[in-house]
Amino acid sequence: QVQLVESGGGLVQAGGSLRLSCAAAGRTFSSYAVGWFRQAPGKERDFVAAIDYSGASAYYADSVKDRFTISRENAKNTVYLQMNSLKPEDTAVYYCAAKVGVSYYYRGTEFRYWGQGTQVTVSS
User: Rounded to whole angstroms, how far apart are CA atoms 117 and 76?
Assistant: First the structure.
């Protein structure tokens, strides 16, 4: 069992930065791949980024590549999403999720554990 809690969301102007954190409770967190997903009002949940259990491999949606960076500190049971050059279209609720193995990292349905989400709003 893994419990996930996101933090770090807020209101930022376009071009600004935010760092989201996903803190996990559970002794085996370092065994899980972690993904970030986002959902804007009236839209489907979209894949944003994912990282394997060790942090050696990271994956990004094309829309955020070169702007967002996912990382993890297993000693702190935490995964981060550094978001730079934010755009109004990045506005959404951001969720972190965990799964065993990193295959199909872009499919939210593959992830077993989810956090409650954190709101990110980017003003123009």
Answer: 20
Asked whether 113 and 98 are in contact (CB, 8 A), the reply is: yes
Side-chain-facing half-sphere of 51: CA atoms under 13 Å: 21
The partner residues of 11 in beta bridges, in order of sequence, read: 121
Q: Give CA–CA dist 94/89, Å, rounded.
A: 13
DSSP labels, the chain: --EEEEE--EEEETT--EEEEEEEESTTGGGEEEEEEEE-TTS-EEEEEEE-TTSS-EEE-TTTTTTEEEEEEGGGTEEEEEE-S--GGG-EEEEEEEEESSTTTT-GGG--EE---EEEEEE-
How does pLDDT run across 70-123, given as a tens digit for each residue? 999 999 999 999 999 999 999 999 999 999 988 899 999 999 999 999 999 999
CA–CA gap between residue 86 and residue 2 (Å, rounded):
30
Per-residue confidence (pLDDT) for residue 29, from 0 to 100: 85
Task: Please give the structure tokens belonging to residue 82.
Answer: 């550094």
